[in-house]
Request: fold
Amino acid sequence: MRRRPCRAECLSIGTPARRNVRRIDTDDLKKSMIPIATQKYFFLRVGGNVCNSAFVKNMQVGATVLPIPKKTDRVAEDKCIQCDACVNDCPTRIISRNGSVPEILPEFEEQCMRCQHCLAVCPTGAISIFRLKPEVSLPLAAGVFPTREQMKTLVRGRRSVRKFRRENVPRELIDSLLADLVHAPTGCNDCDLIFTVVDDRREIEQLLEQIVSLAENTAIVNDQEFGPEFIRAAVESYRYDKTDFFFRGAPHLLLVSHGTKAHCGQEDSVLALAYFELLAQTAGLGTT
Reply:
């Protein structure tokens, strides 16, 4: 049996040289309707809460596209203490301070990643960028983050759900979770992801049928048994008595797809789903 080559991802770990002092509250989401069939997607089943409201069939949410900055938009000279935190924290090193305040020179504006780190790390709130102002941002004061013990409980206590209630989750709740999810990290800060929520059971059943057929047809074309053993067993169970081991009867599906501008779209998609699983747990929802 041929083994697939091992693939590993890397994450750098260490104590930050400087910490963010504020976060931007940007919940303006761009929503557009596109056919699911055109997307390369990853699945997450969502459900668990009781409600009577119906959710929109398909909802795509992309991260807000920010304009290219004009220098740093505005630096309040009376607040700037010339600590150069913004200069040193800029990932692309395009912020400089040749005078009394930092700036982005016009020839470097196109290299801006729109990460807003300069605003987030400024200890005195002197920097405004992309028309985002520090006075309307949310301070990251001591105690606002979950404790180490709380995060340990969340990560160790979360479990995949194998059986869901049939009731839909409130649309407002999923909207709120998606508004948080757009802040999940993406490679090069591309933010080129689309989140699609499906709750129409007929569409979910059609999608399930397509997945089962795809697995079977792939096996026939390649003249081999399809996929891992659990996939084969799931297909056989579905063909035998319609038992759903793929979506587990969840009332919603979250599909994450990526656009052509994403440098590492597949990794961004999987990472976003991992973040959503933790967010959903805090809202009393189950995922698998």
User: Anything to note?
Assistant: The longest helix spans residues 201-222. The longest strand covers residues 252-258. The CA atoms of residues 20 and 245 lie 43 Å apart. The radius of gyration is 23 Å.
